[in-house]
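Input (structure):
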């Protein structure tokens, strides 16, 4: 990711509580995997808060089509793929359904969300 794209990612994450926790989830998971140590408590904490926030945002139409919700689900997919690929199928299906839902309503993926989803698709295997 370029420095500008990374800046945009963190700028967006600080404005959306669910995406903030999703971003922190990926960061803490990455650090643990990179060091070869067990996942810290922070991973489970941010995972629980991320899922709670996503569930709350999916209750409204605006939440279902928001880029923050999609980006947060993408964070969950990345996390689950890293720690246990068999558990990510539900969130992959949900992400795909929401992307199609947005497409059908002429909402276009832009900016950081498009890059995040494209990055996951390229690196999931």
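Output (sequence):
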């Amino acid at each position: 990711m370029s420095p500008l794209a990374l800046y945009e990612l963190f700028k967006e994450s600080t404005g959306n509580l669910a995406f903030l926790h999703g971003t922190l989830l990926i960061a803490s998971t990455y650090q643990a995997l990179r060091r070869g140590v067990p996942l810290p408590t922070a991973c489970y904490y941010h995972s629980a808060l991320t899922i709670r926030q996503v569930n709350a945002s999916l209750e409204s139409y605006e939440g279902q089509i928001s880029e923050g919700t999609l980006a947060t689900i993408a964070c969950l997919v990345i996390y689950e793929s890293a720690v246990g690929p068999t558990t990510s199928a539900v969130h992959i299906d949900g992400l795909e359904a929401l992307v199609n839902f947005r497409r059908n309503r002429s909402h276009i993926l832009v900016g950081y969300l498009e890059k995040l989803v494209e990055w996951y698709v390229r690196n999931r295997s």
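Notes: Residues 3-123 form one domain. The chain has a mean pLDDT of 79.
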